[in-house]
């Protein structure tokens, strides 16, 4: 059914009391203001920048101070309500006032360019519409609700459905990520925006390493539109592995995955923003939260990593040598945040190590290194894998279902807008667009659910005692197994290496622009090989160039090269060293990595 465009006349709150024609359609809100010389000025608040809207009523508290309360418009089917009925609906929030006006607040995050420093970022903007054409509050509120529902309908249409997806988002938060502020960041910066968008979510705080992986592996996911990691790449890695190790991974892989970057590296969040042309700094959390709400997604390649005793699924990188050493050994400086990498890089440059071994790879045919000539990969026909170890098969794989499964109850949010409200009242409430609103902040109370599983519960002990290295299910590729020799089509290099680092995203960390040409589903693993013999000054240049993406020479040379491949095998000759997958240390020994094109979907900005 067509959604009807709405238009109405409003008066601005400034002294001039200008007339403003407001139009709401599939484009968003068009604000047409008449200027003094009989010309009109038009401004568009684009639908894609709007996260949500709210019908608001003014109430007087017991001390007689004016306040605004909000209530999500409930049911458009009640349009024949009398004014009294409507008042009853708002009695639930101790409604008592003499003003018959109703308000619609529209929350948008608009791209803004700071001219001085040329920084582009999104700014919060609240469009406030006061409805007072009717004598009764009920009628005015019904009109505000009509606009509210129309905003939702247009937003739904823009995503190809009738209304906004009301399914919940499953949020997993690692309180130990980065410098340990994930919980605070989520409450202060993410929750207010989720509330504006009326996005329901269930929050689960991880209790220990591997918690998220097992949680996602067994959780009933039917009621969720997406899973979001509030943490670092390590937490996302756990979620990805939990998802692809599910018995129903073939369906589960379609759930959207997202990340709110609270870790110390944050390569994935930075790569998503980069590839989609969204600003990242200075507000990475806001950008990631808006990405959670956009309803957009893109396919992402996954790399299947095979070792003697385990299969892992990777989205970022596989590394051996210098960068992995820096990543893992600098853990002891974790409290310094991103600075830990810089300090340890200098340390490792001074005490440079080399590693002996063999690197084999299957070159990707016909790939030019120019980003815009890369064609996207065809997805592989998918096969199930099932491991021989059935230890986890005997567990009650639905252990979270009984203790922890959340009903998709109707979300009804109560939000206190006191700060922004007092600002709005200062500028009179019939403002339609106030620059001051860009600065308003508020705390909100959400009915979204916070969970942490009680210690000692079945689910908890199950998580702690399960053998998490066991691989049950998941996609396989077409490369030979690690025990078989590599085929003749593979290139084999043997010798002494400073580093072998394979990556498939643009950024390994927020400040590490490792593969400028990478795309999320280009079907390519980019392997950077640095051979022993490179001078320290060349290596310093390489490491310093990583922040701008200029570290790899345009043409491969004797010591440094980047090769696009679809599969890779690393066989160290020594018994000791550091191997990482997505920045997490794994068991040291031979490994094989194979690209699985477009295996999962990640949330993308608008
Ligand atoms: N509650 C927890 N206590 C301790 N460790 C945890 C907990 N939850 C998750 N972990 C582990 O912490 C490790 C690091 O987490 P995460 O990736 O979120 O942060 P980070 O390492 O600071 O960020 P990045 O990976 O971007 O550098 C992961 O390997 C994860 O398994």
UniProtKB/TrEMBL annotation:
Keywords: ATP-binding, Kinase, Nucleotide-binding, Transferase. It holds the Pfam family YegS_C. Residues 164-309 form the DAGKc domain. It comes from Bactrocera dorsalis. InterPro entries: ATP-NAD_kinase_N (IPR017438), Diacylglycerol_kinase_cat_dom (IPR001206), Lipid_Phosphate_FormReg (IPR050187), NAD/diacylglycerol_kinase_sf (IPR016064), YegS/DAGK_C (IPR045540). The keyword Flavoprotein does not apply. One of its GO terms (molecular function) is kinase activity. This is Sphingosine kinase 1.
